[in-house]
Design goal:
By secondary structure, the protein is of the alpha+beta class. It is about 25% helix and about 40% strand. Strands 2-10-9-4-5-6 form a 6-stranded mixed sheet, with no helix packed on it. A 5-stranded mixed sheet has the order 12-20-21-24-23, with no helix packed on it. A 4-stranded antiparallel sheet has the order 1-3-8-7, with no helix packed on it. The N and C termini lie far apart (about 185 Å).
Amino acid sequence: MMVKQHMLFTLYSICGIVLKDILAVSVAATKNKVRGAPGQFPIVQNMTVTEGGTVNLTCRVDHNDNTSLQWSNPAQQTLFFGDKKALRDNRIELVRATSQELTISISEVTLGDEGMYTCSLFTMPVKTAKAFLTVLGVPKKPEINGFTKPAMEGDFITLTCVTSGSKPAADVRWFRNEKEIKGAKEVNASGRTFTVKSSLKLQVDRNDDGVAYTCKVDHVALTATPQQTTEVLEVHYAPRVEIKHSLTIPQEGQYLKLECVSKGNPSPDPVLWTKDGGELPDLDRMIVEGRELTFTSLNKTDNGTYRCEASNHLGTNHAEYVLFVYDPNALEQRGPDHALIGGVVAVVVFVTLCLIIVLGRYLARHKGTYLTNEAKGADDAPDADTAIINADGNHAHAEEKKEYFI
C-alpha cells in the first residue's frame, strides 16, 4: 500500500515538472513574439503582368527577428510558408526566402491569376500586407471582313475589323494607305476580356483600286509594334481613253507616234485604231504595236481623224485625234504674212484712236455753243426779267446762228 502511494506521488511530480516546462516555453515564445512586434511590418507592391508572362511577388520586412513570412493567393490558399511550398502548382516557384524577404514567381500567368495577394508576418497579432496583381489580356491579331473581290465602281461596301481577347479594351484604327481615316468603334465585354470592332463604310470608285486598307490595334500589352492586318482593294471599272502625240505641228516626211493611253480594270487590251470610221489605209507606213500607232513618214494623204477605242466587260470608251500634215515650204512663207497682219492691226488701232479723239472734241464744242446761246439773253439786260425775255427772243434766230464744226 505504501509503495503504491509513493509511485503515484512520483508520477504526479514528473507530470507537474513537464507541464511547467511546456508552459514556460509557451510563455517565452509568446513574450518573444510580442517583443519583436514593434517596427515589424511586411512591405509589398502592386504588380502588372501580361497574360502568358512571368511575375515576381516580393514581401520584405525590415529588422525581422526570424518571424516567418507567408504568401497567399486571392482564394486565401497558402502558396509558400517560409521556404516551404504549400500549394501544388508547377507555375509557382520560390525565388528567395530569408528572414527579411520572401519572393515567389508565377509563370505562364493567366487572367484567372489576377486578384489580391496577401503577405503575412506571423507576429502576435499577425500582420499582413496586400498586393494586387493586374493581368493584361493581349489582343489577338485583327481580322478584316467585307472585302468583295472585285468590287465594282460605285458599289457601297462596309469593311469591319475585329480583335478579341484584350484587357482593357484595345484601340482600333483605320488607315487608307498611310493616311488615317475614322471608323465607327464598338466594344463588347466577353468574360474577363473585350472584343472590339470598327466599321468603315465606303462608296468605291476607280481611285480605290489598288489602295491598301490597314487595321491597326494599339494596346498597353503590345510593347513592340501594334498588331495590324492589311487588305488591298480591287475595283473594276470601265476604261477611259486619251491620245498622246509626239509632234505639235506634224509636217510632211516627219516621224509621228500616237499613243493610246487607256486605263480600266480589267485592262482593255488590245485597243482598236481606225481612221475616219474605217480601217487604217496604209499599213506599210502606219505601224500598230500594242497601244501605239506610228507613222514612219507623214504625207498629206494621212490627213484625217484617228480614233482609239478600248473596251472591257464594263464598257467601251474612245478618243480621237485630228491629223493635219503641213507643207514645210508653206510654213516658211507664213512669216511675212504674220508681219502683214500685225501691221494691219496696228493701223486699225491707230485710226480708231484718232476717231475717238475727233469725236470727243466735236461733242465738247457743241456743248459750249449750247451754253453760250442760253446766256445771250443776259447781254445789255438791266435786270433778270429782261434777260429772260431777250433769251426767248433769240430763239427765233437760232437756226440762222448755228455753227458747224468738222
